[in-house]
């Protein structure tokens, strides 16, 4: 079985809803998907996965959430080289800069981004959730 891990941080649930849809999209007969909040994930989660999706909203001033997500991302940078990776997250009012910076950062560490980072303003509507599922399917590509 192929292993996909979907790991996210979410303060008010928007990115969590996206994460659930990404996980649903990634599921198929040949793929085992785990959906974890970042506090439940470890470096081993990433090491043992064939493909991963990471989700985090834009926080601070266009940065990753700083107490849990940022340290986690820093801790796995050395593990993502050659790995299929999808990034996603919700935002409120900005221009998506946090996602551009995050994408560039993961690419610099050798991750193979399966798509452009998926950003959704505030709460994902049905069409946004479909995009999340499509992103999940790409992890099986
Ligand atoms: C402390 C804080 C900082 C934020 N900073 C930004 C920001 O810089 N740019 C932006 O577009 N949205 C910003 N937002 C809005 C969140 O990204 C937005 O509310 C998002 O939907 C939250 O996702 P969540 O429900 O997964 O926590 C911020 C929200 C909070 C609470």
Automatic annotation (TrEMBL):
Domain Flavodoxin-like per the UniProt entry, residue ranges: 4-140
Cofactor(s) of this protein: FMN
Q: What does this protein do?
A: Low-potential electron donor to a number of redox enzymes.
**What organism is the protein native to?**
Dendrosporobacter quercicolus
InterPro entries assigned: Flav_short, Flavodoxin/NO_synth, Flavodoxin_CS, Flavoprotein-like_sf
Q: Which family does it belong to?
A: Belongs to the flavodoxin family.
What's this protein's name?
Flavodoxin
PANTHER family noted in UniProt: ANAEROBIC NITRIC OXIDE REDUCTASE FLAVORUBREDOXIN (PTHR43717:SF1)
